[in-house]
Design goal:
single chain; 12 helices; alpha/beta; three-stranded antiparallel β-sheet; binds flavin mononucleotide; Probable nitronate monooxygenase; TIM Barrel
Length: 340
């Protein structure tokens, strides 16, 4: 199903307003595969985006979060009190939330979305089969060999291997999963040795040489997120784009402080200050910290915003998607003719 793509490059679904329709369509127009991110959006909002992509008559995908609700405990209330005291903003303990799971599944079926990917878990075989029978190609994101096997058993057409270098949230099936810290290249080789399923490689891929190495290691396609963050078509806000390229931030780290789920982003003051007390409770912590992040954006303060990025963020280039794509393809072709 990836053989119809001119180039083996997927644009990562990026929630939080980053994966705009413009970004997804520009990637598909340039011969890759653009993805919309349904996570955190209302069904109405993602439906409008799907309609626009359908009208463009280009291949595209939609990514959906598999719902989970870690149970709340005392640590969440303590975290709330501490953040309220430090930021002087009233915060709310949220109710359970499935991110409109049923409605989003219905939408991808109604519009026969060509590619549907899942993150934070594996849907049941029944759900996967229904979507496949409807004509979609189903991808499940995995972070270790065990999850890869489960995804294939449940009927996924392809698996997206997320290496530890990846920007954004860890896609682990369980919120807390220490078996999932696998570097991408090692992960590709391990899975390829054991399984014949189509592999998408994701995590810290930023240039044509990385793409070449991932394909050589056994991936069928690669998925890039951070590489597209500073494109003109990306919906990343200017404070975020500036933080990625200003040199003010020198490293990334994994953190639970913003959402309660492990995610990789630029290491800022919020992460350093609250890491030791942030509860592993998703999505409650994500909803809890939302007003703090919104205020930080208003104040143009990157030190209290979640600035998701891969370990390779220092190599981000800005420009149009076409410019980024042309560069990636040129580097890839150069590597194919000269790299080992
Ligand atoms: C800003 C940002 C938002 C992300 N949002 C999503 C998402 O909504 N769904 C998803 O499956 N992955 C999401 N991810 C993770 C990426 O899909 C991912 O692991 C990836 O393809 C590798 O990204 P990288 O090139 O940034 O390392 C996000 C990553 C970033 C950087």
């Amino acid at each position: 199903m990836f053989s119809n793509l001119k180039y083996p490059i997927i644009q990562a679904p990026m929630a939080g307003g980053i994966a705009t329709v413009d970004l997804a369509l520009a990637v598909s127009q340039n011969g890759g595969l653009g993805f919309l991110a349904a996570g955190y959006k209302t069904p109405e909002a993602i439906e409008q985006e799907i309609i626009k992509c359908k009208e463009a008559a280009l291949p595209f995908g939609v990514n959906i979060f598999v719902p989970q609700n870690d149970s709340l405990d005392e640590s969440l209330y303590l975290y709330k009190e501490r953040l309220e005291e430090d930021f002087q903003i009233p915060l709310t303990i949220p109710k359970p939330d499935d991110d409109y799971w049923t409605e989003k599944l219905e939408l991808v079926k109604t519009y026969k979305v060509p590619y549907v990917s899942f993150t934070f878990g594996c849907p049941t075989n029944e759900i996967i089969e229904q979507i496949k029978e409807n004509g979609s190609y189903v991808i499940v994101t995995v972070t270790n060999l065990e999850e890869a096997k489960i995804a294939v058993q449940q009927g996924a057409d392809a698996i997206c291997l997320q290496g530890i270098e990846a920007g954004g949230h860890r896609a682990t099936f369980q919120n807390v999963d220490e078996e999932s810290y696998v570097p991408l290249m090692e992960f590709i080789s391990t899975v390829r040795k054991e399984m014949a399923v189509p592999i998408i490689a994701a995590g810290g891929i930023i240039n044509g040489k990385d793409i070449h190495l991932a394909l050589n290691a056994g991936a069928d396609v690669v998925q890039l997120g951070t590489a597209f963050l500073c494109t003109e078509e990306s919906g990343a806000n200017p404070v975020y784009k500036q933080a990625l390229q200003s040199g003010e931030f020198t490293e990334t780290a994994l953190t639970r402080t913003f959402s309660g789920r492990l995610a990789r982003g630029l290491k800022n003051e919020f992460m350093v200050k609250y890491e030791s007390i942030a509860p592993a409770i998703y999505p409650a912590v994500n909803t809890l910290t939302q007003p703090i992040r919104a205020k930080a954006l208003k104040d143009q303060n990157p030190q209290a915003m979640s600035l998701w990025a891969s370990t390779r963020f220092k190599e981000i280039q800005s420009g149009t998607v076409k410019e980024i794509f042309d560069r990636l393809i040129k580097e890839l072709e150069l590597c194919r003719s000269s790299c080992i």
